[in-house]
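In the design runs reported in the main text, the only information available to the sequence generator was the tokenized backbone. The following block is the verbatim input for one such run; it is reproduced so that readers can re-run the procedure and compare outputs position by position.
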């Protein structure tokens, strides 16, 4: 091979130098581990924690939403494993996402009914607080949004289960043979 030609390496089995390890299997292990880590924490919404420092200044710190951290970690795992999807994984994950869409539409229609049925006084109070109804979406300031997050957690736990089944089918759990 001449100096001007490029050699394409097999990225599935690539391993870096002595201090560096990289393989698709290792990457999958890392993202699945992250999903497990975020999924085993208490699921709570994010909030601002305000403290007063020794000079009397307010210091606001955002405490992240652990529910969204879990959901996003599963989305990343799904993205990393997309190249591994077989027909069964595609079918099962599509079913879960279809169910999630149906639930979203149901919750949106429930919120719309609430908007349609609430009094003018309540609507005015919501508008003054910057709470509006927008067709096709949920207001984060109303409980329907929190209901959807809970449904979303359930769906992404099911997706993580499907990803785990996929890693089993692909043999990612096979042990390496070690000789002593």
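Verbatim output:
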């Amino acid at each position: 091979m001449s100096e001007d030609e490029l050699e394409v390496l097999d990225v599935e089995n690539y391993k870096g130098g002595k201090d560096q390890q990289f393989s698709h299997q290792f990457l999958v292990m890392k993202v699945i581990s992250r999903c497990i880590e975020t999924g085993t924490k208490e699921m709570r919404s994010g909030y601002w924690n305000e403290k007063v420092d020794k000079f009397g200044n307010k210091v606001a710190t955002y405490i992240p939403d652990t529910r969204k951290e879990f959901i996003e970690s599963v989305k990343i795992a799904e993205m990393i494993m997309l190249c591994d999807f077989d027909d069964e994984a595609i079918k099962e994950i599509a079913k879960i996402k279809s169910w999630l869409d149906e639930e979203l539409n149901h919750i949106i229609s429930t919120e719309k009914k609430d908007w349609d049925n609430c009094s003018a006084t309540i609507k005015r109070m919501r508008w003054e607080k910057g709470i509006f109804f927008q067709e096709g979406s949920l207001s984060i300031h109303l409980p329907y949004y929190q209901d959807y997050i809970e449904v979303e957690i359930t769906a992404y736990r099911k997706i993580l289960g499907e990803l785990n089944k996929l890693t089993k089918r692909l043999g990612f759990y096979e042990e390496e043979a070690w000789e002593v």
